[in-house]
Amino acid sequence: QVQLVESGGALVPPGGSLRLSCAVSGFTLDRYAIGWFRQAPGKEGEGVACISSNDGSQYYTDSVRGRFTISRDNAKNTVFLQMNNLKTEDTAVYYCNVVPAVARYWGQGTQVTVSS
How many angstroms separate the CA atoms of 76 and 71, rounded? Predict the structure, then answer.
């Protein structure tokens, strides 16, 4: 059974940092690309970052490039999102999923709130 479980969200001040984790079960990371997505109140969901299944190539949406870093630990079957210099507009529920996303793989997400 495939599961992707997000964790690591918190309340942080602007300029702070967080590391989100996505624990994957049911398949190994060398099979699918994994992406981080976010849903902010009143806004459409968006893809934030993606890491490929083979060579680990990374892709970022413009608003987070240079501040966020996606990585993976194949031994732990876990994908991470290191978020630095957080801004209030990064406030959202963050989810991970395969790329392209599969509806039944969406988890509960993890809340990131950036506020002073």
Answer: 12
Calculate the alpha carbon distances from 84 to 64, 72, 98 in Å. Answer: 9, 17, 23
Q: What is the phi-psi region of residue 74: left when phi exceeds 0, alpha when psi lies from -120 to 50, beta otherwise?
A: alpha
Instruction: Give the mean pLDDT of the chain.
Output: 96
DSSP 8-state assignment for residue 66:
T
Q: Is the dihedral of CA 20, 26, 31, 35 positive or negative?
A: negative
Entry field: residues in the chain: 116
Pairing of the two strands 11-12 and 110-114: parallel
- The stretch 41-56 carries a mean pLDDT of 94
Say if CB 82 and CB 68 are below 8 A apart. yes
CA distance 23 to 15: 26
Residue with tokens 């624990």: 23
* Whether pLDDT at 12 is above 90: yes
Structure tokens at 53: 């299944």
**Could you say which DSSP state residue 54 is in?**
S
CA–CA distance, 114 with 112 (Å, rounded to integer): 7
